[in-house]
Structures are given as structure tokens and as C-alpha cells.
Write a structure and sequence with these properties.
Strand content: 15-25%
Radius of gyration: 16 Å
Distance between the termini: 32 Å
Strand order of the largest sheet: 1-2
Order of helices and strands: HHHEEHEEH
Helix content: 25-40%
Shape: elongated
Structural class: alpha+beta
């Protein structure tokens, strides 16, 4: 816990007051729970994403499917709902980026859904963080 606390403090100092809302991707490609495996595979190929959010027909956030969950599968009747990552951490728009770095650095998730209530409003991926952390500082 001490090392984790020190990492959060170091990240906070480096990132300042930035929040998830300032970094999240807002233009999201999502699927519905009954999206079949062949369509999931096509979306992953078309967009070259590592994760796809799953949104209910009523618009609420359900979870995420990782591209790696499809490896070796061929049953066309499998759906996004059956391939959801679990457990899944989510964040709010107000979550400090220092905390986001810590959550994504543990390797448990490729992306963090940004939610307000039950609605998905954004996504932050490991690739987003790598780009931020490796960008030249002004």
C-alpha cells in the first residue's frame, strides 16, 4: 500500500489537476449485449480497438469486451454479453488522472469506462495514457 500511495502521489505531482473528463475519448464505438461473435470480430478488425464497450438497448453501460476474449472462439451464437470482462473498474469524469494511471498500470484492464450514473460518457485506454505520459512537456 505504501508503494501504491507513493506512486499516486508522484503521478498527481506530474499530472497536476487533470481529470478523466479532460482526457477521455468521447466518440465511442459500442455494441449491444446481443451482438454476435462474428460482428464483434468485424468491429475489432474495422476499428483496430483492443476493447469495445457494451451498452444496453436503453443506453446504460453494461461492460467491456476485450479483443483477447475472442481468441480461439468460433461459435457464431456467442454474444457480447457472454464475453464481458469481470470484474470491471469504472471511473467518473472527476477522477484525477493520477488515479487513472494507477488503475490502468495494474494490468487488469485495457481501458477504463468513464460513467455518469449508469451512462457511459467516455473511455480512457492504456494507449491514451502512454501518449499523455510520453508527450513532450511544455
Amino acid at each position: 500500500r505504501l508503494i501504491e500511495t507513493a506512486e499516486i502521489a508522484a503521478n498527481a505531482a506530474a499530472l497536476g489537476p487533470l481529470t478523466a473528463a479532460q482526457m477521455m475519448s468521447r466518440d465511442l464505438v459500442a455494441v449491444v449485449p446481443d451482438t454476435p461473435l462474428p460482428e464483434l470480430a468485424a468491429r475489432f478488425r474495422a476499428h483496430r480497438f483492443k476493447t469495445l464497450p457494451v451498452i444496453g438497448h436503453d443506453g446504460h453501460f453494461i461492460g467491456i469486451v476485450s479483443q483477447s476474449a475472442l481468441v480461439g472462439l468460433s461459435d457464431p451464437d456467442l454474444t457480447a454479453n457472454q464475453l464481458l470482462e469481470s470484474p470491471l473498474k469504472t471511473i467518473t469524469p472527476q477522477t484525477p488522472l493520477a488515479e487513472v494511471v494507477t488503475l490502468l498500470a495494474d494490468g487488469g484492464q485495457q481501458a477504463l469506462p468513464v460513467v455518469e450514473g449508469q451512462r457511459l460518457i467516455g473511455l480512457i485506454t492504456r494507449s491514451d495514457l502512454i501518449a499523455l505520459l510520453s508527450a513532450p512537456k511544455p
